[in-house]
User: Fold these one by one.
Assistant:
Number 1:
Amino acid sequence: MVESLRLFADRGYAATSVAEIEAAAGLSPGAGGLYRHFRSKEEVLASAIREHIERTSKQINDVLDHATVFEDRPLEIRLRMTCQAGLAKMREEQDLIRVLFRDLDQFPNLVAEMREGIVNPLYDGIATWLSTQPEFAGVDEDWPAIAAILGGAVVNYWLANESMYEPPSHIDEKRFVEGWARLGMGLLRAPVAGTPVEEAPVEGASAT
């Protein structure tokens, strides 16, 4: 499946022949060996996507199961590690992401499977991780929304770097990770929802 997904990513779904998939999989090209396992080229693509979904689901569960291992480290370090893990995940899934942006508009059912099997669980995992950090205990936040912002920043940074061949504003990965972690640290000062915000005095207004 890895070989077929790489071909789809490099050449495009339509331009990749069954014979090329067979050759990449170690089968005799054009001999029809692929059809002993799959009914069509689309089924090969679907199987590759589902393989990634299964692996990602296991990774998320493993991370959450072992989240307490690093709680003795400062929060900023844990945030940096989380950001670095997110960028590493994007690199790991780069072939799948290329196929998604190039070809998956032809297969809305597979897009839905990716959304529900990879994308949403990843954002849910970030929200769960943030909400369970000891330093955020008692912080009343919309964690899914925060996860969408922080996770989206990782996705945007990687995509910009990948598609435009350099990071936004020439910000290298080290600076991005440090900035991302500082943004996360700002949650420690987040006001409790419903707390009235003191209005700044209007210049020139007289006290009554």
Number 2:
Amino acid sequence: MTSDEIAYLISLVAIGDRKAFATLYRETSPKLLSICLRILRDRTEAEEALQEVYVKIWQHAGVFAAGSGTPSSWLAAIARNQAIDIMRARKPVADELDSAYDLADDDPSPEIQTVIKDEGRRIDTCMEELEADRAMAVKKAYVEGQSYQELADQFGVPLNTMRTWLRRSLLKLRGCMER
């Protein structure tokens, strides 16, 4: 439907033509509903807003001046303003937050996060001092949770040798971390 046709329908609505109003509704309601829905993000509220939009169109059609803008923008402005008015009428989120109890933040503080990162870097540096196969065995045992027997099988060494590798590697790591 062209702008001129919509403007003509609005002018007929201004003089109380119900048939023109029904046609205007049929042609423009999908777009106006999408505007309300985009702003309100709730279909029920958007549909209620749309009803109010068309009440305002019926009441104020005589105010529309065809030379002052496109009829589509005039209709969209009414829909947008109605949706915003409904949003403003809602209880503000800030009030809900102010009245809520303080919630504990389980995340570590920035200071603790920095300490953890520094410790991680120190551990990585100390791991680099170990032989590559020993470092890999330590990671698989203590990070991935593999058993001594699984590690012994993977590395092709006896079980007691794997235990010795891990014990000596942990002693080296502790010594490095204490420096």
Number 3:
Amino acid sequence: MNIRMTLATTTRVLDQLRHDHRSVALILVVPALLLTAVYFLYENESLPPGVPRTFDRVGLMMLAIFPFVVMFLVTSITMLRERTSGTLERLLTTPIHKADLLFGYALAFSIMAALQSLVATAVAYWIFNLDIKGSPALVVLIAVINAVLGVALGLLCSAFARTEFQAVQFMPVVVVPQILLCGLFVAREHMNQVLDNISGVLPLTFSVDALKEIAGNSEATATMWQDALVMGLIVVGVLVLASLTLRRQTR
């Protein structure tokens, strides 16, 4: 990899996003709006004294899941447009390496993901009074890693799509199973053995486990750092795989 080439790609993508107001709104605003909808779903629930709100559990998980989904969609469609428009083919005639290109895209969208996570977390804490034991900074960290995971998977899946519709069709294959099996709806220990085994290797599961550690402990735990490290390694591995499958154009 060439750092200069990678940063040049990052700068170009950020400049394009700066002029694409709809994409910026999708990245920065939509997760916060979806979180707002989740809050009002549970606004009128009746709980005995001392029982934590459902929003404190579900809303916390959504801080990771919503950015993951949004960044997957935005990244896969953006990269597909680069390929179908011929921009990618022109870039690859220059000395830039595929890894420089992919990691440059990942860095650009990671910056947007960080901003996205900060906005959503601020809404959760300051407007909806999210109440957990752990630090908001750790929540933002896991949310950012999860959003970058969405970026990496979006870049990988875009290599196998020929149209934007096909890119969106990867959602039920790549994203939805992870949401269903991550432990949000049913605790993993209550799943049958097959589903539990599948859940144990899905990236989103590590994110949910890390957030549960943050929710239940005032200090960062070794388990939380282990889950974060695994997620980071998965992100790097997916980006490397994406660089190997990257094609110049869609035929």
